[in-house]
């Protein structure tokens, strides 16, 4: 029952991982789908990842292509997950392998 015991670690890590991989999927799908496509999968990926893209776009130069912003978002989310793990390690609250 380690998953339920350490929910405070697993839940934010899962959310960040889901956002990271969805953003990576958006970047890959963006290679074959038009930006204004009415494809429901494309619209889902955009709707889920738009808050992350908006946050990354604030600190990214305006000359950057959208795919660059998406990939930078993947990198930022990866390092946010690493920082979360490090924080929990410092607090001694990371799940232990048994």
Question: What does the secondary structure layout of this molecule look like, with pairings?
Answer:
Layout: H1 2-5, H2 7-29, H3 40-59, H4 66-91
Describe the structure.
The chain is mainly α. The protein has one domain (2-91). It is 74% helix and 0% strand. The protein contains 4 helices and no strands. Helix 2 (7-29) packs across helix 3 (40-59). The mean pLDDT is 92.
Principal-axis shape equals elongated
Largest sheet: none
Residue fraction in strands = under 5%
User: Count the helices. How many?
Assistant: 4
**What assembly state would you assign to the polypeptide chains in this entry?**
single chain
Question: Could you provide a short overview of the structure?
Answer:
The chain is an all-alpha fold. Helices cover 74% and strands 0% of the residues. It has 4 helices and no strands.
């Amino acid at each position: 029952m380690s998953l339920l015991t350490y929910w405070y670690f697993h839940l934010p890590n899962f959310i960040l991982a889901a956002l990271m991989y969805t953003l990576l999927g958006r970047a890959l799908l963006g290679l074959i789908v038009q930006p204004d496509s009415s494809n429901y999968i494309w619209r889902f990926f955009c709707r889920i990842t738009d808050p992350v893209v908006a946050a990354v776009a604030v600190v990214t130069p305006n000359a950057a292509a959208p795919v660059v912003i998406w990939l930078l978002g993947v990198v930022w989310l990866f390092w946010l997950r690493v920082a979360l793990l490090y924080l929990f390690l410092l607090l001694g609250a990371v799940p232990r392998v048994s």
